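User: structure tokens for this one?
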Amino acid sequence: MKVSTNWLKQYVELPESIETLEKLLTNCGLEVASVEDKGKNFTNVVVGEVRTCEKHPNADKLSVCDVYDGSEVHHVVCGAPNVAKGQRIALARVGAYLAIPGFEIGKRKIRGEVSAGMICSEAELGISEDASGIIVLPDDAPLGTPLKEYLDITDVIVEIEITPNRGDALSHIGVARDIAALTGADLKLPELKSEGEAIEYPITLEDPSLCPRYSAAKLSNVKVGPSPDWLKQALEAVGIRSINNIVDVTNYVMMEAGQPMHAFDSDLLKGEGIRVRAAKKGEKLVTLDDKERTLREGDIVICDGEDRPIALGGVMGGANTEIHDGSTNVLLESAHFNSTSIRLTAKHFALHSESSYRFERTPDPNGTMNALYRAAEIIQEVAGGTLIGYADAYPKKIDSRSVELRHTQIGRILGIDIGKDEVLRILRTLGVEAEEAGEAYKCSIPTFRSDLEREIDLIEEIARIHGYDNIPTPSRTTVYARAAVDQMEFHERLKSISTGLGLDEIMSQGMIPEGIAKKFAAEQVITVMNPVNVERPAMRPSLIPSILETVSLNLRNQSTAISVFEIGSVYRKAADGQNTVVPGYDERTSYAIGLSGVAQQRSWYAPEREYDFFDLKGVITALLEALHIDNVEFVSYDKSDALSAARLQVVVGTAVIGDLVEVSPELLATYDIEQPVFIAELQTDQLETAVESDQKLKAISRYPVVHRDLAFVLASSIEADTLLNTIREVQAKYWTSAEVIDLYESEKLGKG
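Assistant:
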């Protein structure tokens, strides 16, 4: 979000230097992404006077001017249609650098005439986007005065990266509030004039969960036209294009207080009143960008008295009630919409506006009327008209939350003692109503801070404003780093072996759809309360969904041979008493391999072959051999789920370290996969435990290797592992390994 320092100064005293302000904001969590000094485009740009203006001898659309700057005359070629003799203008002298065209002004020939300077437009100086003609200054503008001083252009635009939980900071007042808390300066909020009576204007909220509050104001006899310079410049400074005085006021209030608004031409509304409801499947609405939208069931729509859609709530207004030059009667909307619904609608229609951006981050439900008071006052100032009154539908008021904050807990968490007076100052400056109650504070959280819910949230706010740099780092005498280093080394070793086996490493996100997660962990699934993506609220309990997503993506991109691996965290709710970092939750690292598609391309010496279960088993066997893990068994077992068509357990000694599965067709269909996929998932901690820490070297045998092929006639129901385990149980001094090399089946050997 862009904020203007000139705009901020209306509400709080700023630090002397922009560098100090930048550091303050970044250190408190409002990370500064960029800083733009608007005055930098005005270096060596002064007030000048056009002494002569004649047509260029070699160009119809150019003029040759002599411009006096109070000390010397400059010969300038100008292409603006409105340049004329006697005008006071903005002259960029030789040596000036204009950032918008992106070049330095110098002497150069234009169609045979030497030009030593430029007569500038607003666009060339970055004042606005108006490039239709040059700036014409008042006749009394002092010649030679730097334009930056004459126009008082001292604004600096600071672009801030706002985290999703800080919707309150998406306004100049929100940023000013943090600055006041950081510096101790007074916060000066605009005085709101709530003149105007409540009027009988029907507002129907069909589903308060979609729209908990809808406030409106009616004004008559307004005059729509261009906005005054102060309003246009304020909006253009933060990247918003001026449209007309009515629309500009709604945008101004949004950037000032963070409450999105919309203005309807009330003469274009049919029937009496406003209805807010969920859209019906297939409903149509032409939005302000002149595009017809086919609404989905569940999108929030604003309708007039005849139930005709007139706006896509919180996202964009409708063209059928747009404010135009002839509008005289206006209905102002200031509402509070469901953030999840707005996010889904904006994403579906690819309509990401300043309005939807704020609604997605939960603005203050109790700020709608204040925004109306402010907007109505400014509209009457810039467009005239009469305020008829206000209407407000708020069926279930959203009250502030109460939280008890223990003073001792602040010291315990932060490791420093912050005085009670300072704690109260910080909380109250941030808008929290706090009162001392013995060794605790009774806190009432304002509704514009939806991110503050618990005691720990308030402690974090105190740390943020007190300054993380002011919290000393305690020295530690005991260091427990070796285990983590060993684990990292082991993971790197796993990666090295895996890539050596021809596998490609993937890194996928840890959040997945809840329905998918429950297929793997049922009641052990962990979901987050405020997910970044509402369609992925669950923390993955297994790497298998991540592998399947990768396989599906690659297949859609015409990849025919897929062999991948991933090392990543998986999460489940833990049983009581289980050794976990956070009681009740278990996080561990898994290693997974996925194979699908063509294992061997067709060639002159071999046909094409696809991956099968034995390829997966072979890769795992090679991996375990590279790790020098012996005593490995692959045990088949039945598991009553719909996830696997075939499954083997990998057992080392007596410990089960993972599974090999052929994914079931039902699960594959969930990912639109129509070919077999084979996945192995192993627990890295079990793998690491199985690796011998002390590898012993053995002398090379003095005898040559001898291979013996033994044939056994067995029932077809006996598994290969059963045979191999029986052989391994034989105490033989000189044999080292046994493996199945061939399988022959025939009725001549007997049935079964």
